[in-house]
Structures
1.
Amino acid sequence: FRVPILLTAPAVTLRNDSIDHCTANAAVYVGTGGKDYVITGNDIFKNTGIGLAMIAGGAGSKVEGNSIVNNNYGVEVDVIPNADFGGGAQNSLGNNVFSCNAVQDFWTVQTNGVLAAKGNYWDHQP
């Protein structure tokens, strides 16, 4: 699994970055055991894989104010409960933009659980 940004240590802040035109599996990947992140103010766009992949970690993280557009998948979250994308336990304001991602703007393999994602902007029905 190829990724340019791999978050595995807890309590890291990823702020005000542009991650674009990446040909890896994911532009930003939260690894196993990774938790308590603040991911804010980033532009994640035009990546051929997943923009933000929280497949194995991300519990207790706050994700707000990001623009995640024109990727193959915008966000994949496979561990629930996971990050707060708006209105959840970490008091995220949301304010993320999920738009024009080719397959899905937001994807999970989970069939039950609650994922907080209020106060965001979607270009299609979420």
2.
Amino acid sequence: MITGSRMLRKIGVIGGGRMGETLAHLNGLVGLETVVKVKSDAEHLARAESAIVASHKREVRRGRQTEAEAEAALARVRVTGDYVDLADCDVVIEAIQEDPAAKR
């Protein structure tokens, strides 16, 4: 993916809900390394990772992608609880709940 004259290689997504899961799924599928930042507790980390895996499994079951494509896409996605992991992303997309206090 090209923006101006610079190639995007790494995308950050803040939020592991439905929108964050979809962004991670699609970015990984098109070949972009993707870091998904969620709340740092074990429950949020596990839930986000599980949702992304389930999303790819669903697409494989429906015949929309192969098992190899799903595995390759998942290898490009990392879920984290630490903002520091977003530091080297080319772009970061905010995809958290629609709550002004949370967005601040």
3.
Amino acid sequence: MYLSRDIIRRFVAAVEWVTPRNIIVLSLGHYRASERANIVIRNELAKLTKTRREPPLKRLPCDGGAVYAYYYSRKKNIGTFKFAHDAKLRDCLAKFLKDRNYEGIDEVSLEPPSDARIGNLFFELDNGHMSPSLLEDKIRRYYSGPGRYRVVFIMASRYLTLEEEQRRLEMIFDIIRRVYPHKPNRILAASYRQFLEDGMFYNFKGDMRRLS
């Protein structure tokens, strides 16, 4: 399980901070509870906090644990209110980049209105907090204009249950059918756990897409 430190640095620079789990996904393309993987990745991250030739990572306490942050990050930029959401978002970005051999890693942007963007692909991570009306309003407000772009919604669950993820996935498909009945591939979706397993997105017709 080898991942170059250059890739880790570039990913951290792009997303500002990471958890060891994020880097395991970036390295393997999936996450499995593994003591060996955790030890290897934590050791690599620890070494990156002590480098001298390049600015070291910062190890900052957060949400009962620690994150590894870009040298120029400040603790106040790593909020605890959205920590679970933002950590899952980084899992998904890591999976997407790993599946593409890290192509686009330097294009990652966390600028609003989307949760993240790589090129003309917009990422939205739903952690189970937004109501159907709020999700629909977000789609209509930010993603109904012309242009050559795609949006992917990854539906997670604050309760960490597969059933809740699936329910929210069906909910977003219902919204997309109403907003884009004639553009089934403008907005795609996947459940959080399923996406980390296979890296696939689906349109509201159930057609599968692997995006480049």
4.
Amino acid sequence: DALPILADLGEADRAAHGDWFYPAVLASHLREFFGPWRGRLAFSTDVVTDTSDRTTISLEGRLSRKWAADEVQLNGRYDYSETNALTTTDMLKADGLWRHSFSKKSNSFVQYRPTLEWNRASRKTGVPADYVLLQQEIGYGISLLIRPERKLRVGVSENLFDVWTTSPPTSHTSRTVESAFIETELRLPWGLLLSDRGVYYYSFVSQNDGWENRVELTKKFTETLSAAIR
């Protein structure tokens, strides 16, 4: 009920009554705080009651910054859900990126990608199997396209996987895996941005292999509002 009242107040009065919560003003304060860093914050919750009581909470944050030859990205996400007071999802994920580009003549770069996954509601055959997964990727690649509307990068990486099982009996395993990756960014009409990263994992020691692909389509409506499909 306070929003219609605030709409009729002057600028000075609105500032005294919490002008911080207006999207444009909040974005301005955040830009002053983070400076050259850019980011995104998302929160969602869902409470459903029918044949069972279900609650879901998701929180996600993203920060990035670019220099002349370096780029840094930091991402974090937390998902929690329960059904009839029983926890079904309790997952924390975090990942980062540091990419250093060499001379424009070579169009080559090196990058480091750490990924952390902490699952506190994992079960195998009905038995708790909570774990912490740490993946570290060190790669070298070449930028085939470097344009504002199109970017294409390819390369190879060495990956180190560490898994700690935190539910009794605790254990730790470690292994290295090779991979090849392709990354694309494409700006489409109507303010759409399509980004894709595909990774093919292989091993010279074992004959196992696998494929991972992440696609995100983002639509920016205003300076503070955007929507994405991932």
